[in-house]
Design the sequence.
């Protein structure tokens, strides 16, 4: 019996790039099908072909076994295909309820909004997801995870036959992921097909019935989930085996004195009496549930929030951080949680993004030294292995992994001694993730950089950190040597906080 949606021998070409090359894929009703591949492999093109945005150069699209000769976005919507995009596609100046329910109101041709119905629909959708969001809150005021949940809830109320989820768990905590998986399994039991696009291999193995892996626009592996493991998916995605050797202290031990020392740091309503030492060459992990205060702590260290009590020392010297400029002068760099809205100037070139933190050095008389600027940007592109033919290319055209390297490279030009990484590999494919880890490890072990790595990805922390700190309700509640703990122990601790 044919699947609900079938792509047969699909090819798509863009200005010198073969995005898809003879790809065939079938999704059955009531199955969860994972699509895996590195950034640039063609996953986004597949999604846009399935949703009618792109018309393939060759091949056919069939619904319920019937070939659709002219498949456009309206056809896809009428067929019951809903897409949750990675960038959320929300209206930041509207409320949670307005973002979730107004689309349905417009779709039904209503000329007047029934606000009572809007609120009821919103509360039902959020309750089904098992999350607690204020329907009257502006979306712009929500954290990344909250905005992601709004996008998911909006798609759920449309009653889809196929729900395409593009990196749906990128900014979610383990608790929220569990809630999402519960919902996904429920709608699957109702006969709805789900295409789950993710970089997180453990999630693929946990949630899916089948897995398809594509590389360079071609299908390289496909089969039932129980025929895969993490190593097999990685090998299919990248064409190589990636080491998972844990990070250890360089030269047998870290330097004795702390590079970063925090004592009694307090920001009322966010965190209280925090103490932390990180030595040169040490990578310390920090995790906790959404709302634990971990991001606010990092922002306070960088001067985006101002702590009211406590002290910060860098290499034994007290520093007073009231704004980001103070942190940068002290040798502290911050890679934010959301690189698209907080870390990059998307309309500017790669070179300009890299140089943004040091223009005062290369333009002392307000005239940029073009030769020096080009040299510094080019050297950093090479050092960070940013995949681009030229630094003049808009940074928005890079893959997520390369964009993250641009942000990290920008701060390394400031000669930072302390690097705060908030979700360093969120939305990054496995190959780029391994490369970012390699770069961070190298900077720590060879340059003596002190690194605070904030992440929900417990395997990432266990693999790359010497210690892992758990935060709950604004306090550090555990500080464990990685060699003496496990992912399961940390996960169980976080679960107990729910």
Sequence:
């Amino acid at each position: 019996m044919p699947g609900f949606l079938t792509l047969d021998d699909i090819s798509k070409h863009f200005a010198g790039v073969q995005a898809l090359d003879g790809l065939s894929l079938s999704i059955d009703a009531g199955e969860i099908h994972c699509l895996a591949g590195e950034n640039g492999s063609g996953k986004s093109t597949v999604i846009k072909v399935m949703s009618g945005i792109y018309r393939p150069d060759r091949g056919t699209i069939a619904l319920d076994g019937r070939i659709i000769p002219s498949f456009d976005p309206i056809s896809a919507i009428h067929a019951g295909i809903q897409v949750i995009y990675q960038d959320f596609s929300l209206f930041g100046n509207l409320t949670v309820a307005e973002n979730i329910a107004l689309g349905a109101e417009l779709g039904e041709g209503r000329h007047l909004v029934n606000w009572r119905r809007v609120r009821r629909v919103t509360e039902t959708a959020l309750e089904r997801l098992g999350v607690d969001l204020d329907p009257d809150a502006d979306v712009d005021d929500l954290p990344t995870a909250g905005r992601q949940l709004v996008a998911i809830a909006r798609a759920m109320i449309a009653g889809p036959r196929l729900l395409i989820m593009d990196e749906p768990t990128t900014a979610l905590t383990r608790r929220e992921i569990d809630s999402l998986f519960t919902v996904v399994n429920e709608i699957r039991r109702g006969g709805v097909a789900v295409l789950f696009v993710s970089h997180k291999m453990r999630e693929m193995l946990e949630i899916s019935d089948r897995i398809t892996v594509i590389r360079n626009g071609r299908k390289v592996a496909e089969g039932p989930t129980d025929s895969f493991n993490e190593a097999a998916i990685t090998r299919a995605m990248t064409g190589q085996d990636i080491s998972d050797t844990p990070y250890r202290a360089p030269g047998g031990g870290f330097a004795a004195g702390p590079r970063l020392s925090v004592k009694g740091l307090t920001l009322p309503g966010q965190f209280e009496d925090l103490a932390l030492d990180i030595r040169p060459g040490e990578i310390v992990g920090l995790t906790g549930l959404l709302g634990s205060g971990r991001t606010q702590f990092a922002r306070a260290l960088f001067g985006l929030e101002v702590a009211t009590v406590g002290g910060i020392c860098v290499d034994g010297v007290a520093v007073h951080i009231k704004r980001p400029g103070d942190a940068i002068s002290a040798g502290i760099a911050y890679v934010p949680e959301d690189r698209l809205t907080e870390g990059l100037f998307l309309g500017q070139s790669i070179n300009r993004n890299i140089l943004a933190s040091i223009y005062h050095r290369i333009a002392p008389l307000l005239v940029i030294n073009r030769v020096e600027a080009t040299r510094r940007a080019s050297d950093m592109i090479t050092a960070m292995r940013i995949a681009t033919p030229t630094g003049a290319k808009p940074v928005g055209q890079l893959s997520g992994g390369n964009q993250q390297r641009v942000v990290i490279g920008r701060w390394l030009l400031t000669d930072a001694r302390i690097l705060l990484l908030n979700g360093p590999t969120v939305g990054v494919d496995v190959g780029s993730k391994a490369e970012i880890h390699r770069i961070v490890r190298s900077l720590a072990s060879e340059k003596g950089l002190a690194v605070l790595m904030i992440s929900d990805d417990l395997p990432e922390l266990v693999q790359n950190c010497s210690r892992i700190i758990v935060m709950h309700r604004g306090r550090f509640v555990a500080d464990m040597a990685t060699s003496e703990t496990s992912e399961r122990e940390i996960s169980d601790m976080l679960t107990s906080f729910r």
Notes: The chain has 18 helices and 20 strands.
